[in-house]
Design goal:
The protein is mostly helical. The chain is built from 9 helices and no strands.
Length: 181
């Protein structure tokens, strides 16, 4: 049918096709566009949330999380490192984060707290992941799972820690113009 025939037959015109950007309407990446490491971070965030809120046993949290739909698409080794490394190093991670906070930990959302743990842990232990990728991934986690402006808080804290924890990498990016001075 031609356009004229559609009008004559009373058919409604088709809506324009949506551009596939890999983003949801909220700006978060669609599940199909996520890497296995991004998925690992999401599952680690959920597990760390259970730890922070419910004070559940890490082994039980781990077993529960591995049974969730979609876990098979995640990088299990990265998930293990983030979950167990963050829980085991919680005091050290909090000690690094605390000086950059403008409030007590008790007043911070457990989502933002867990995201900051993930970011600081990755800054320290996942040197194969560029610092800007760590920062961006954590901002995305906070946008997707956290409060309205939680991602801004996470960004400020992690951006403040990056020069301390990844000094050479941050300085190289600043010198090349890839990061702000």
């Amino acid at each position: 049918m031609t356009e004229d025939n559609n009008k004559a037959a009373g058919a409604k015109p088709r809506p324009a096709r949506q551009v596939r950007t890999g983003l949801t309407s909220t700006g978060a990446r669609k599940a199909s566009a996520k890497s296995n490491r991004s998925r690992a971070r999401e599952f680690a965030l959920q597990a760390l949330y259970q730890h922070l809120v419910g004070r559940n046993d890490p082994t039980e949290i781990d077993h529960f999380t591995r049974d969730l739909a979609g876990f098979h698409k995640a990088d299990a080794a990265h998930y293990d490192a983030l979950l167990h490394g963050s829980i085991e190093g919680a005091e050290q991670l909090d000690a690094l984060i605390r000086p950059l906070l403008d409030r007590k930990f008790e007043e911070i959302s457990p989502i933002e707290h867990a995201v900051m743990w993930i970011g600081v842990y990755e800054f320290q232990h996942c040197l194969d992941v560029p610092w800007r990728v760590v920062l961006n991934e954590c901002i995305e986690l906070a946008k997707e799972f956290g409060g309205t402006d939680g991602h801004k808080y996470v960004n400020a804290v992690l951006n403040g820690l990056a020069p301390q924890l990844r000094a050479a990498e941050v300085e190289a990016d600043r010198a090349s113009g890839k990061a702000r001075a």
